[in-house]
Amino acid sequence: MGVLLLAREDVMGFRDMILDVKARVAAMVDRGMSYEELTAADPTAAYNDRYGNPDRFLRAVYTELGGEL
Questions:
Q1: Per-residue pLDDT tens digits for 34-49
Q2: For residues 28 and 38, is the Cβ–Cβ distance under 8 A?
Q3: Largest Cα–Cα distance in the chain?
Q4: Predicted TM-score of the model (pTM)
Q5: Which residues contact 41 (CB under 8 A, 6 or more apart)?
Q6: What integer is the mean pLDDT of 40-66?
Q7: pLDDT at 5 > cutoff 80
Q8: How far apart are CA 66 and CA 30, in angstroms?
Q9: What DSSP assignment string belongs to the chain?
């Protein structure tokens, strides 16, 4: 297995994505949105091409912020 080296910009971009999605999901949880409503709103749309399928990530963020699956 090879070693994955990332540039500082890559790491910062990933961090920024996490913070952005967390803020979007937090607002949706505060509004009482279900997980199905949240996924329909697609809070990761701007990042899906770069980071892939967001389902596991969204489930983790949603539940961590108080949403119930």
A1: 999 999 999 999 999 9
A2: yes
A3: 44
A4: 0.86
A5: 28, 33
A6: 96
A7: no
A8: 9
A9: -PPP---HHHHHHHHHHHHHHHHHHHHHHHTT--HHHHHHH-TTTTTHHHH---HHHHHHHHHHTT---
What's the CA gap between 17 and 46, in Å, rounded? 9
Q: Please name the amino acid found at residue 61.
A: V
Which pair of structure tokens corresponds to residue 9?
């910009």
Conformation bin of residue 9: beta by default, left when phi > 0, alpha when psi is -120 to 50: alpha
The residue written with tokens 């500082």 in the block is: 8
Which tokens belong to 13? 């971009």
